[in-house]
Amino acid sequence: MAGILHILLSVLALIPYSLAGKCWKDTSCSGPTASGFQGPWEENIYAPASRTVRPKILLDLESNSAAYAKSNAPVLHGNGSRLVFDFGLEVGGVVTLHYTTTGSGAIGLAFTEAKNWIGKWSDSSNGAFEGPDGALYANFSVAGEGSYTMPEKELRGGFRYLTVFLISSDNVDAWIQDVSLELAFQPTWSNLRAYQGYFHSNDKLLNRIWYAGAYTLQTNAVPVSTGRQVPMIEDGWANNCTLGPGDTILVDGAKRDRAVWPGDMGIALPSSFVSTGDLQSVKNALQVMYNTQNKSTGAFDESGPPLSQKGSDTYHMWSMIGTYNYMLFTNDTDFLERNWEGYKAAMDYIYEKVNYSSGLLNVTGTRDWARWQQGYNNSEAQMILHHTLRTGAHLATWAGDKALTNTYHSRADKLEVAINKYCWDEDYGAFKDNATSTTLHPQDANSMALLYGITNRTRASRISTQLTKNWTPIGAVAPELPENISPFISSFEIQGHLAIRQTSRALDLIRRSWGWYLNNPNGTQSTMIEGYLQNGTFGYRSSRGYSYDASYVSHSHGWSSGPTSALTNYILGLSITSPLGLTWKIAPQFGDLRSVEGGFVTSLGKFQTTWNRREDGYTIHFSVPKGTRGNVTLPFVEEFKKPSIKIDGVDVDRGVLYSDDTATVTVSGGGVHKVVVH
Q: Which stretches make up the Alpha-L-rhamnosidase C-terminal domain (predicted)?
């Protein structure tokens, strides 16, 4: 038996690379057909070259090793026998089996993302918490050849391992002639590798992390007809509910919940822009929140249909922040005009909860990302409201409402004063979890305070230092969710450190947290996990009294993709500052890296940057669309010593703004340029 388990058919080998492809079912092929940037970095893309894939290996569980051979079909021999097919990475869609049997019985199919949940029952996804996902069964009544395609309603959104097992008498054999999977994610793309952004550095781990974030987002872009069924079913699973408009939509996770969660989009949306460039899925996710908005109050739901949970002030605001991000990246004025009245109603709804004596938001919609406490003058919610007001002011400008721009900025200014007055803990050196007396100093609020520039430089430095006290060898524990490590909130933390140029801390946390999971032999080794415990197990939130089992954790969750945008926007240093990139910024942070390059595409064209360090300085090459203008912020080569700067061979000694050991130069007109600093 053990010898047979080492066999793998040649049909299970990797398919040849081909750019030819198809879209999912009846969706229109509206996605890009070619990558925006071709080069060696494409080797890091996890996405297969075809929508039809096959397992890479047949896993031998007895020796815990993997091997395959291109010879005879693997066989199930007798009742209870099993084979484990490993696709090598996170996949999702509809499986087809071809088999030959010597009698009657049934072949079972069970799915799991993580290796440690491999078995004859699938890992948990249905959300009912009262019954197992179980398995699917292909029944056969006579000997001979047969085939089975799983029902589309039972599409499995995310898995790496497929266990195939036999239920029959002990003298029945079943040869598995072929296993294939039609991928369902990124349904409007005929070429799943047609990324519109890229990142490449001299650090292979960081490169893998960037692309794992991108692939996570791909698996979270799903057909709108494949949402998880609500009410949840108690046995088995069903992914057959409508999620929103269009053909494709961005959801929270591949396996589950398979619904729009605006809070998750606070991380997922910017990372989608710099990597896959899939903003159609984003647009549909945001539009469904406006379509389901409470028209009498202006309140957004916490999640999209069919889940449609309510009662979250923070997620209400994330829908508003998502509107800003989408507009920044697309300048979709039709979208803004169509939803502007709804946006303003949403702002009125949340700002009515501000206490005019303290100036702080009184949180009454207490549902949130998973933190253990929420409500009253919670500091995380104050940080999110501040960012909502600042981004709202930009939206008002783009909508041509100058008066509203001034109003939103004025409100943000007042809130900033109130936050620093009532929520700051001077003795500890960080923000408290609430304006009331508390010893809890949360990761979420303090990370966002850094990222959104809510406090002064001295306090920001203290916050950054205090955040490191939550670190373990495998990531940052969130004090507001004890024992748990949240890549969602840690995504804000790494960006917060980078926002105040604590580069080494950010890179350290990326490597110890995301690097730990990506290299974990029990993980997908291709996508980003929802969360995990500080003891290194995958039981995210299971330590806090939740009733579901640890296998319910999603191993492909877009809210964990923060390093993808952080590495592009801060380490490479490339970002846009007005819609489509009419204005932009290049502000690299080197850390311990020697070279980085990357770019992304908007409808204006390609934005691309490369930097290389030398012993006596560094060189930056960049290319931006013509007619654009931006600031290039250059780190000093030596502390306190103003650098020598040449742009396109010309010394730059006038019009340079010096601040915080950086020199900023404005470049107008776009085009291709070379900067030499020493």
A: 584-636
